[in-house]
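Page 47, continued from p. 46.
Same chain as before, 174 aa.
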Amino acid sequence: MYRNYATKLDRLFDRYPELDYNWANSVFPCASFNFGPNAVSLEHNDHGNRAAGWCSIYCDGSFDPRRGGHLILRQLGIVVEFPPGSTVLIPSACITHGNTAIAKGETRWSFTQYASGGLFRFVDYDFRTWREVELAEDADEFLAQREKRWAAELDLLSFVDNLAEDRQTSGLLS
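Result:
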């Protein structure tokens, strides 16, 4: 998945040189900061994010993680302590997620990185929107790709043992 992000975004940035990575050590093209002081996220799905892609969530602040700030992962049926300084990667388009409140007088903030599914589809559609593809002569080719996309996306997921190799061979950090 990491290599796929880097490959497709490199193509996008080559085509549109005014665009670039947010940070040299991150493949995520989108980021959000919530400086709090009491950053709480109601349970939600990020439907615009890449469906099989990852969302990186980092939290920090001064709060007791045994009492509040827990990460809720609804479909997995779990609530996890998420202490200050922690990072988690989740498929935020597919997993309903949020966090619990913290106590009065405590602080919590978050930094989230993610990828819009539309960016990758735009590259896959030869730098066209779906509406433009529908009107094009090659629409059938892209419709066939669209129907197989979910299985292809799942094949991009790495195993833990491959993460370091995938990152090194992505071309992003070379």
